[in-house]
Amino acid sequence: MHYFRQCLLFFALLVSSTSLLAAININTADANQLADAMKGVGLSKAQAIVVYREQNGQFKSVDELAKVKGIGTRTVEKNRENLAITDKN
Prior knowledge:
The protein is 53% helix and 4% strand. The chain contains four helices and two strands, in the order αβαααβ.
């Protein structure tokens, strides 16, 4: 029984950590999702990303985030692995 609990706990941790690793689509995420997913980005900067996207169209690459006022290349690099421009299925 103890072994079963350990396996169950391991599986639960594996599933939850995998979902945390899923990249967020910067072309579809709302400001709250962006703020939650990105290191160094609060709600204000996340809203700026959404406004930029609405005014200029979808991002063609993650690097284009650096064009948003308040988002620099350092912020992009810090978050690159967690960002995507398309949904990964």
